[in-house]
Amino acid sequence: MIIAVASGKGGTGKTTVTAALAANWNAPVAAVDLDVEEPNLHLFLHPAITGTEKGYIEIPKADEGMCTSCGACAELCQFKAIALIGDTLLTFPDMCHGCGGCIAVCPTGALTVDSRELGELCHGTSGNIAFHMGRLRIGEAMCPPLMKLVKHDVFSAYEDDSRDIILDSPPGASCPAVCAVSDADCVVLVTEPTPFGFYDFKIAYEAFSVFEKPMGVVVNKAGIGDRQVYDFCAEHNIPIWAEIPFERHIAEAYSTGAVITQAVPTLQPVFETLRQSIQESVHA
Ligand code: SF4
Ligand code: SF4
């Protein structure tokens, strides 16, 4: 089972929920930080990192002596990462998405495979929880290629279903978030009941609902703001699987990097219910 914990905007408590959910899972589980631009799940799970490797994307390298300026590569590239200006071939490695199309269509073999470093892939353990994380290289603009490498590692490690997988998705509803949610069996959408929270929640819900996966909501900081999130969920038949109250000792636990159900045991039943709701929704 793959669960994506997502949110319309940063700062809603998505990673807090991911950490507590992993800590309260009742089966072998892997917690995966796919928020590669700003990973912080490790700050809560404090894993022992046992392996780190670099991740790369394949990009074209041009041999100008072999290029006949036919233009096939530039015509094919949808990302303008390769261009022909007159007879001059230009490549823009940072804009390349690594599809390999230009290399495949080049009739002269002028394009060969080079690589660009995307960042790091780390793995380790936090108690019984397997931990995985991607960390984007400073200056690298694209998250999804590194996220795909992390997902490939994780999905192949547990393809025998030996562990359920909880993905801490990047915030928002753009490509990186969709990249995280697209493979999940179930989406947990974390929001806070404020006007800003509701605005971004609605966008995320609309983006993710096209996948037609089971989706439920965790309302963090319940008790502040207004009822717009609740009204929207009622209107669209979206279940609210958990509410985390807005209380000082929960915020203090979060600020010290604690798993909130360990620091505030009264929250354990909340996460028990959340876990059950997720499992029931996937098995329904
Ligand atoms: S590999 Fe794909 S994205 Fe990169 S330059 Fe070639 S066609 Fe464009
Ligand atoms: S497809 Fe090959 S030969 Fe044609 S312009 Fe591109 S690099 Fe040159």
UniProtKB/TrEMBL annotation:
It comes from Halodesulfovibrio spirochaetisodalis. Keywords: Iron, Iron-sulfur, Metal-binding. GO terms for molecular function: iron-sulfur cluster binding; metal ion binding. InterPro entries: 4Fe4S_Fe-S-bd, 4Fe4S_Fe_S_CS, CobQ/CobB/MinD/ParA_Nub-bd_dom, P-loop_NTPase. This is (4Fe-4S)-binding protein. Residues 58-84, 87-116 form the 4Fe-4S ferredoxin-type domain. Pfam families: CbiA, Fer4.
